[in-house]
Design goal:
The protein is mostly helical. Strands 1-2 form a two-stranded antiparallel ribbon. The longest helix is centred in the first third of the chain and has 20 residues.
């Protein structure tokens, strides 16, 4: 399954179940809660950490759909952009971007 197909299926599920499809601030809040659940599952070594990561994707897909954004296209564009960026270690050890080709 590709990102575009997953986004479409996630949206269709929201419509079929009567879940939120219009309140963007609410969806961001729910996404944030899912990130917290995924972190807790990872931290505690729970077996459902993969499912929690999938929940994050599904909420993200819904947010994209609500805003008319194709995650498939945006992810491809962002990966391309990231591959052209160059970094160097900064004074405190964190990487600092030095250029974008």
């Amino acid at each position: 399954m590709d990102i575009a197909e997953a986004q479409k299926l996630a949206w269709e599920n929201k419509l079929a179940k009567g879940f939120n499809t219009t309140d963007i601030p609410l969806e961001f809040g729910l996404l944030t809660a899912e990130v917290g659940e995924a972190f807790t599952a990872w931290r505690k070594g729970l077996p459902d950490s993969g499912e929690e990561l999938a929940d994050i994707f599904l909420y993200l897909a819904a947010l994209a759909e609500m805003q008319g954004v194709s995650l498939d296209e945006e992810v491809a564009r962002k990966i391309d952009k990231n591959t052209r960026r160059l970094y160097t270690p900064g004074p405190n050890g964190t990487l600092e971007r030095i250029s974008e080709h």
